[in-house]
Amino acid sequence: MLYWHWLTLGMALIIAELFIASFFVFWFGLGALLVGLLVWLNPTLSTAWQVLGWSLASGLMTLLWFRYLRPLMKDRTQAGNARGAVIGEAGRVLRAPHGTNRGTVRFTTPLLGDDEWEFICEGSVVIGDRVYVKDFSGNTLVVEKRD
Q1: Are 108 and 128 in contact (CB under 8 A)?
Q2: Strand partners, 7
Q3: Is the distance from CB of 86 to CB of 111 less than 8 angstroms?
Q4: What confidence score (pLDDT) does residue 65 get?
C-alpha cells in the first residue's frame, strides 16, 4: 500500500469517529496516519509489516487511552450536582426540633435559593447551635452537630 492509502484510511476513520460515539475508532485512525508516515519515510515497507504496524500502533494507542489518559479526564467538579454542592454547608439553628416537628436552620448564604430550611437531626440541638448539612430527606435537610 502507498502512504496516501494509509493517510486516507486514517482520515476516514477519524472522521467516522464523529458519527460513532465510542471514541474507539479514533485510535485506529491515528494508527493509520502513523503507518502512512512510516511508509512515506520508507516506501519499501511490505504490506504485511504495514498492517502489523497499524495493528500494534492502534492497539497501543487504545490501551494508553483507556489505561492512562481517560482516568485523568474525569470531571471531578460538583457542577450540575446540587446535592454535592450543599453537603457540608454550615448554618445556625433558629428553631430546634422537638417531637415530630422539624427544626429550622438558617444559612449565611442561600442554599438552592433559600436561606432557611427545615431540618432533622439525629442528635439533640438547641437554638444557636452550628450544624452541617449531612444529606437530604425529601425537601428536608439532614444535619449533624459537630463539636
Answers
A1: no
A2: none
A3: yes
A4: 86
